[in-house]
């Protein structure tokens, strides 16, 4: 497939690197409203086709798929337009910054039948997939308590470096969204109520830099989310799931607990392939490209096989809904129902 990248910022580099590892896929075009940035990105990645308006990309019949790598509050507009133009779409996280815009992506995707892959690359991790299977198969029994510890560090310069980070790039929507999606995906059940706290405690910005929430799941399980961009020097993103029959815990550095009351019937501890091994102490960068490549190839396969991609909008909206619920609860000062 011939891909075009819309938005030539930081994450676009990861998409270009991922496509470079896929022999059957081609980075055909790039686009950015900043002409200098678009031209430079095209030179660096050996791309001859350059656009400065995403609508021109969608009008090009040679473009078969687009990677939407623009600021988060533009994802909905561009994904919807691409779906209506008959393109396959890779939409970076978060799918959108409001529930209404995210719902529009879901509606148009279903209406047009477009293949839309949303980026939550942590779902590709073998340990995350193994945890989800163990929960779904009942190996942990009833789930009692789950935790997502999303403790990052971003200094003031990070927020000052791009205006969009101060309007739609808070700790939850920009960093925490990966972990919020993953914990809810692993639990595999709807959220019933949420009580959230969120605020801007240390940075000069218009978005939250710290948030916490207690979610009650449909089964009665309690899910606790802790998220900040003030945790110096930054900690591995980690998850803990306690069930009546055992505990699963893992983070960026590997599996910490895979313990069951009955070892004989326990599912096998997940083995990490070298492709996803963690070489740097904290940084996720070493395996970003591999997991993006998996999702981009999956989109191409979904088109060829006429099936849904691995992470369609109807699933990716879960994280947006949860974050909007946490924000609403924090504003109201009380729990809200889903």
Percent of sequence in beta strands: 15-25%
> SSE order, as H and E?
EHEHEHEHEHEHEHHEEEEEEHHE
**Overall mean confidence score, pLDDT:** 94
Gyration radius, rounded: 20 Å
Strand order of the largest sheet: 13-12-11-7-10-9-8-14
Class from secondary-structure proportions:
alpha/beta
| Share of helix, binned | 25-40%
Unreliable segments (pLDDT under 50, ≥5 consecutive)?
A: 274-284
Counting DSSP E segments of at least 2 residues, the number of strands comes to 14
> Number of DSSP helices?
10
Tell me about the largest β-sheet: 8 strands, mixed
Distance between the termini: 39 Å
Shape from CA axes?
A: globular
Please provide a written account of the structure:
There is one protein chain. The chain is an alpha/beta fold. The chain is 37% helix and 23% strand. It is built from 10 helices and 14 strands. Strands 13-12-11-7-10-9-8-14 form an 8-stranded mixed sheet. It has a 6-stranded parallel sheet with strand order 3-2-1-4-5-6, sandwiched between helices. Helix 1 packs across helix 9 and helix 4 packs parallel to helix 5. It is globular and about 60 Å long. The protein starts with a strand and ends with a strand. 45% of the residues are buried.
Describe this protein with a few key phrases.
338 residues, alpha/beta, globular
Please sum up the structure shown:
The chain is α/β, with parallel strands linked by helices and 338 residues long. It has ten helices and 14 strands.
Write the SSE topology:
Blueprint: E1 2-6, H1 10-20, E2 26-31, H2 35-44, E3 49-51, H3 54-59, E4 65-68, H4 75-84, E5 88-91, H5 99-112, E6 116-118, H6 126-136, E7 143-151, H7 156-160, H8 171-187, E8 191-199, E9 210-217, E10 222-228, E11 238-243, E12 246-251, E13 254-260, H9 285-305, H10 313-332, E14 336-337
Parallel strand pairs: 1-2, 1-4, 2-3, 4-5, 5-6, 7-10
Antiparallel strand pairs: 7-11, 8-9, 8-14, 9-10, 11-12, 12-13
